[in-house]
# Entry
Amino acid sequence: MAATPEEILAQAVKQLQSASSDADYRSVIVAAYYGAYHAVVKLEERFPHRSQSTVKKSGSHEALLVRLENPNPKLDYGLRVIGSELAEQMRVIKALRELASYDPDEDVRVDQAEQTILIAKDIMAECARAHKKIN
# Structure
């Protein structure tokens, strides 16, 4: 059975407890980011009125953020606000994930791993609240 977003984030938290090197912190950041990313994808897919916004020459991660930043006007106002806030938070940890994944010459620090986990936890909590609005 596939791991849930919550399980992926829990694994990042567990990894951080024993992390002591640049490589460890990179792994924590990537896992925390992907836990949050998958939670946001699941939420956005459940929106009753999804955004039709697209971006040329972008990946699925950027496309998701653009849809959240440019919601369908028919979407409930509260969900539009939540989506915008989620996109803002995701942009912060996306930048950290890109650093961890693509910039081996730059040092990655424990505080960056901790920050990614904290933001990912906030994102998960916001997604949970939004799911209740949809139900």
Remarks:
- The two ends are 25 Å apart (CA to CA).
